[in-house]
Amino acid sequence: MLNYKRKTSNSRGYNYKWQQQRKKFLKKSPYCLYCMRKGIQTMATVVDHIRPHRGDMSLFWDKSNWQPLCKACHDSDKAREEAGSIQGCTSDGMPKDHRHHWN
To answer: What mean pLDDT comes out for the span 51-65?
Structure first.
């Protein structure tokens, strides 16, 4: 069995500076993007990295890589996407990536 210990959130960049930027971002973008796509208005509590940064701090701080999500969507829908179980489009053929030119 591998003995993998994840770095602390602070050492991964989620420090005071991140908390301040997170707060500003959620003030400007207060609603969960995934819920809004479903026609539901839910307050976002998580600033999610659209593309996982995996320690790349330039990607971590790239605000165009941030999206507002509620905790439920972040922990379920987004987690499934990152695990690869959700394809790139919805059942009606629309791209799930909000940056796609069709959206």
So the answer is: 91
